[in-house]
Structures are given as structure tokens and as C-alpha cells.
Amino acid sequence: MVYSQRRSPGSLRLLLWLLLFAVWEAGSGQVHYSVLEEVKHGTFVGRIAQDLGLELAELVPRLFRVASKGHRDLLEVNLQNGILFVNSRIDREELCGRSAECSIHLEVIVDRPLQVFHVEVEVKDINDNPPRFFRQEQRLFILESRVVDSRFPLEGASDMDVGVNAELRYKLNPNEYFDLDVKANEEETNILELVLKKAVDREEIQEHLLLLTAIDGGKPELTGTVQLLINVLDANDNAPKFDKSIYNIRLLENAPNGTLVIKLNASDADEGINKEIVYLFSDLVLDNVKSKFVIDSNSGEITVTGELDYEVCNLYEINIDAVDRSPFPLTGHCKVIVKLLDENDNTPEMVITSISLPVQEDASVGTVIALISLSDRDSGLNGQVTCTLSPDVPFKLLSTFKNYYSLVLESALDRESVENYELVVTARDGGSPSLSTTASMYVEVADVNDNVFVKENNPPGCHIFTVSARDADAQENALVSYSLVERRVGERALSSYVSVHAESGKVYALQPLDHEELELLQFQVSARDAGVPPLGSNVTLQVFVLDENDNAPALLPLRPGAGGAGGALSELVSRSVGAGHVVAKVRAVDADSGYNAWLSYELQPAAGGARSPFRVALYTGEISTTRSLDEADLARQRLLVLVKDHGEPALTATATVLLSLVESGQAPKASRRWWVNVYLIIAICAVSSLLVLTLLLYTALRCSALPTEGACGPGKPTLVCSSAVGSWSYSQQRRQRVCSGEGPIYFSSIPFFKILKVGLNGLLFFA
């Protein structure tokens, strides 16, 4: 016969609650994955980088990392493809025990800017645990006088799995004397009873051997068995009886030793010694239960004898036997279920991670400073934790997820006013009385440099920056006025380039700036109060003039004496040359920088759509043959080469190349090589002269610089890009974002660097 465990209304309510919770979680923006327990190492879980909206190329530069409290080695992320995979064996029962829900919470953290994502990986149960009985053999003693339908409690099996895999049904081997009855109480635990369906006779059979089988609901089904050894006794007709078969008790955790749990009372219809009852723990009671409770054998009082902790175990099942004192004793049975009630006996725990210190004084409002995670081992209101921050600080706490907070910047910082802050973070639970934990943080404010980036060709009189100074005095002593610290910029005065408004501190560019003429303008602004004597200080500003594409490519002659850049360029070509032979080279330079000076060459289609036997290399400008020349080709070939830079918008120049096809003996090979050598010598001399001139100018500028401006410091490394068809390079300083000039700045100084560019043969070099 087979008995199945049915779902109670309580389990249906729990299932509905979990479904609603899952829907809420999906709407909150959290990423969810699921994985089966016991899967192999390397099993795919999810494309975490893609699902979080992160590019694979930015995982390493942004210090992509995954944190998981207590489960660091179970899951890992491949930074090459952004895939979350199983790193080590996951045992759901070891991880979550008998909990209906089991998930691993991951914190995904990236920097620049600092972001945190929350990922839940649900660990799904597989049927990997068979039902197990606590003992391999259960022994029962039954008086032969027991009437039909008498019941005897049996120990049920347990299954470490959850859900349908832990739903057990029981089967008893066929026999004529005993049947099996399974009941479920309100705590959703099974109560197994052996029912006597036919009176036993000790003189006929003294011992009955039965096999009880437990079958779980998994696929495939797993089973566990226990042998029932039933001894038939001669004696006493009436067994002690309790008022109830099950007693449900509610008890506060941390109840002191000696606290009365319940006083049991059983009765026996017999007389004399057969009516005297002794109360005992059943053999089914586990050792950990016996260490928490004790029963008085005479009075039936159960009292507390050990520490009761709700967070360790919140439910105890105690099987009690009432045995009479007959030489052939009979036993009555009941079960006491003790359910503990939680008390607020655990203080909240706080972990502060990913602290971004020090904080730049120009950090924008909303910048994440630190991540705070809270936890409390209590349940209900006792386990609900809130986090607060000490008042009167320019920071605030934002709740990003349940029990997770971000410490963010709430208002602008000023290092000149406050150099560091001591923050006190308090975590408090909802218990009564509530418990709290505090942690202190020291936030240092770092100074920032004052750089200004302005595009060239700006309109005269445009506002490029604002300086601001503060004075702790009052009235006239606190009135601040601003002025330029005059100096020479080359042959011109500084005041011919910029001016500063005396009251507002706004800095204006008085004339259009030219990147090719002036790449960096360094000067000082003085702030003075109106006191007697006046007090003041200076701030050094560096105005970087950013390049725009305002210079078209300029053509160079094919060789010395071959004509100007604006005229046609001519060259003799032998008809005997083969395919791929270089016959000429178009050379051009661009006065701009970076992409604006990166040139490409294109051959314009010939008139009438005729196919030319020549082509031009995209980045070198070399003109070569596409095939062998023959008599059918025209003796004079006119090529139009379009030279284009990579600026926005692109500027172009057109070179006209006249190629004269001659017989092999008529081509002036030696003369051409001689001219090439002469051209190379002239180019080398020109570059050397420019280098010497640059060094002299650099030395003169350093000697003439103001003492307060500091020496020229090295700039950032030069980024060099190269390919099979050409090379170009540009300074990384040019990739910085152009500031709008809005908002105040405070006085500081930064290093100075110099940019040098030299153009030759279409190649650009930056230092």
C-alpha cells in the first residue's frame, strides 16, 4: 500500500508568496540566473557582462570583479568573454540545508566610474539524496491483547532534498497483520503509525519482520528502507493514554534553564502496578533534543536544560512514551512539538567595501564613495536593518538593494575649507529594544589641478573659465578682486591674449587662438582682498588650445625642381616595368595635428571611365602599376590624386601627376636615383635644423619662465598607432575632454608640459 504527502494550505500560501516575490525581484532590475547543483566545473551560467550592459573590452580596465559573501570559489567570470561559469562543486544541501529557496548573491563591482550590480544565482535542487531512516532497524513491543486498529508510532524518513524531490510516500510490504497510516500535521511533518488490522497471537508468531520503504518524488525515484522488528508480548491489556496525540508549544528562545515547557498527563485503565506510569523520552528522540530538554519520569514535566537559539534551530519534535510498571509494560505515545519564538538577541553586522579614497574635491554630486552591506541573524522586525549617517556632512546614504547602501556625494567639496571628514555610519534593527552597530570612516578630500581646454579659432571675447577665491574675513576685508599677473608670451603681452573680470573672476579670450601658433598658454591670476594691508594669493592656469581641422593638406614636389605644389608633377616611366612597380610618389603635409593631420590618398577616376594601369597607396601616396604596360597604353598618362585628411569635416587637396611612358632605354634611371639622394640629404638637414631650433626655443622659454610657474614637467606618454600602410602618432593629452569653463575653481597648481610637432613626408611626430 502507498501513501503520498499532500500539500497543505500553508505550503500553497508559501508557493504563492515566492511567486509574487520572484515577480517583484524581476521588476527591480536585478539579474537572475539559475544553475543545477552538482554540475561540472566550467558549466555555463550566463553572459553576465552582456546582461549587465558592459562591454567585454572594458572588463579589465574597469577592474571588473565579483564578490560573494562566504561563497567566493563557487562561481567565476571569464574576463575574456564575460561568461559566468561554475568554478567548483555546488552542493545545495550543504549551501542552504532544507531551505525552500537557495541562491548565491553576487556583487559585481566595476570602477571608473564605480558601479555595483546585484546578481542572484538560484541553485536548483536535483534528486541526489535518497530518503534515509535514522535507524536501520525499529523494534516495537506489542501486547498480544491489543485490539484491532491499535496504533504504534514509527520513525519516518528524511530527505535532504527540497520540493518535489523531498515529498515522500511510504510503502509497507504486504502482510496480514499490519497496515500503514500516514498523517501530516500543521507543521507539515509526517506522522507514521503502524495499524493493527488483525489480532496477533504470541503463541502462533512471537516476532514479525516487516520492511518499510520510503520513496521520494524525484525522477528517477530514490528509496530508503528500514526493517521493523515487532515483538509480541504476553501481559497487560490497557496501555497508558495521553489527552492528545500531538501537543504544540510556543516558547521564547533563550528561555532560562528550568523553564517549564509542558506538564504531560497520561491515564491507564488498569489497576495496581499496571496503572502506575513512568514518562520517558522515546528512542526516536535525537541526542540534540535530549541536550535541550529533560522530562521528570514521575510528574511528566518537560523543562529546559540547554541553550535555545532560534537562529540555530527553531523547531523541536519530542516523542514521549508513557510506560506502566507492569512486568510486561504497555506504552502510550504522544509527540510534543516545541516551536521557538525569535527574540532580538543579535546585533546588526556591517561590512564597508570598495572605499574610493581620497575623494577629488571636484568630484561630481552623486559620486559613489563606498558600498555598505548589512545583515542581522534575527528574523522578522528583529532582522530588518536600517542605516543612518552622521549629520552635517556633504554625503548621504542611498539604498540600492535590500540591506545594501551606497555612500554618495551629496554636495560639492572644498578642500580649502575642509580637508577630511569623519563619518559615523549606524546600523539599527527594528527590534524592541533595538540593537545597533556603528562604524567610523575617514574621508580625505584631494586637491585637483586647474586646467582649461579651449578649441582654436574661438570668437574674440568668449568666456573660457571662472576662478573663485574665498576669504574668511568679513565686510571689506572679505571683498576679493581679481587681476592678471602680467608677463610676456613670446613677443606679446599676456593681456593681449586673455583678461579677467575684477569682480566675477571670469576669464575671457580676447582674440582667436591658433593651435598651430600657441598650443599652451600658462599664466597666473591674482586674488586680493580690500583690507589694509591687502592680502592675496595666486593661482596658475594652463589653457590648452585644442586643434581643429582648419588647414588643408599641402602638396610637396615629386622631387627637387619638379615644380610647385600647385602645378602638375611629371615623371618618366619605362614601358618595361612589371605589375606593382612604384613609378612616383605624391607627398603632402598638414599643419594640423592628430587625426586632422592624418592623410590618405585616392586616385580619381579617369575621364570617360577608362581603367588606368596605375593605382595609389592609401596612406603612403606611392603610385604603382596594376599590371605590365603594353603598346596599347597612351604615351602620356594624366593622374588626379586626391589628398584628404581625417578631420571633421575633412579638407582636401588635388595633385596632378603627368606620367610619360618611354622605352626602357630612354628612362633616366641614374639621374632619378641621384635626385632622390639629393632630396633625402636636404630632408635630413631640414629635420636636424628644426630639431636644433626647437631645443634652443625650449631652453629660452624655460629660462624666461616665472619662478612661481614651476619647471616644465613631462607630459603623458605618446600614443603611437602603426599599420602595414603607414604610421601616425599623437599626444594623449589631446584626447582629454574639452571643459566648458562653467563653475568655480579653487587655487592650486599643476605641472607644465610642452608640445612639439614636426611634419615631414606625410608623417607626424609629437613630443
From TrEMBL:
GO terms for molecular function: calcium ion binding. It is a single-pass type I membrane protein. The chain crosses the membrane at residues 674-698. It is found in: Cell membrane. Residues 1-29 form the signal peptide. One of its GO terms (cellular component) is plasma membrane. Residues 28-133, 157-242, 243-350, 351-462, 446-555, 573-670 form the Cadherin domain. One of its GO terms (biological process) is homophilic cell adhesion via plasma membrane adhesion molecules. It holds the Pfam family Cadherin_2. Keywords: Calcium, Cell adhesion, Cell membrane, Glycoprotein, Membrane, Repeat, Signal, Transmembrane, Transmembrane helix. This is Cadherin domain-containing protein. It comes from Ailuropoda melanoleuca (Giant panda).
